[in-house]
Amino acid sequence: MRAAWYERQGRARDVLIVGEMPDPSPGPGEVRLRVAASGVNPGDVKKRQDAFGYGMPYPRVVPHSDGAGRVDRVGRGVGADWVDRPVWCYGAQSYRPFGTAAELAVVPVAQVAPLLENVSFEQGACLGIPGITAHRAVHSAGPVEGRSVLVQGGAGAVGQCAVALARHAGASVIATVRSERDVETARRAGAHDVVVLPGLSPDEAAELVLGHVPGGIDHVVEVAFHENVAIDERLLRVGGSIATYATLDPSLPSRSGPWCSRT
User: Fold this and answer.
1) pTM over 0.90
2) What is the pLDDT of residues 231-242, one digit of tens each?
3) Which residue of 75, 140, 179, 187 has the fewest CB atoms within a 10 Å radius of its CB?
C-alpha cells in the first residue's frame, strides 16, 4: 500500500516520506479500512514536531488519528457485517504506530462508527477529534436545552461542531469569531447570533454578547481560556459553567469573595 510516514520528528517537508509499505492485517477485535479521507488535527502536527517533548514513540509513525473509508477486512471476533460498510474512525494513531495517512488502516472496532450514505468521507474524516471534543465540551456540565451557550471560536473545527451540537440540543447559541469572513461560517453551523472579537476590550465584547442574551450565559465552550476568561467571567450567570479544550497558563480573575468555575 501507499502511505506517508516519518522516522524522525520535524517539519513535514523535512521528515515526511511517501512510499510503499506492506499491507496491514487486522488482529482480534480490529477492522481494516480502505481509507478514502484522512483527517489532520493539531495534535497530529504537534506529535510530528515533538511539541510535547515525548520524542519518537515508535521507530516509524504513519500519522493521523481520524479518517473515513470502507471496511474491507475484519479480524477475529468482529462480525462480517462490517465488511464494505462506510465508516469513520478516531484514535487510529493514538498509542499505536500507524494511523490513517495510508491507503489502508487497521483500527480497533470500538473506535469505528458507521457513516451514513449521504455523508461524505471528507466529512466523516472530520468527525473524530473535533466532534468528540465538541460533544464533551457542550454536554460536560449537563443538558443545555433551554439554556444559553457561548461558543468561543465558533468558526473553527471544534467550534462549528459545538455550535451545531448545542443548537441541536435546544440551546440558544452565541458564537464568537475572529473576523467578519467567519461570521457566515458560524451562522451556517447553527449560531443564532455571532460576535466578532478582535479589536474589542473584554468589557466591549461582553456588552455585545449581553445585547443578545441580557440575562447572561449559562455555559461557555472555550477555545482559549487564557485569553478569554476575562470575557467569560463577565458573562457567566451564577451557577454557570465553562468547558475549555485549549489554553496556555491561565490567570483566573480574583474578587473579594470566592470565585470558581465548574469544569
Assistant:
1) no
2) 999 999 999 999
3) 179
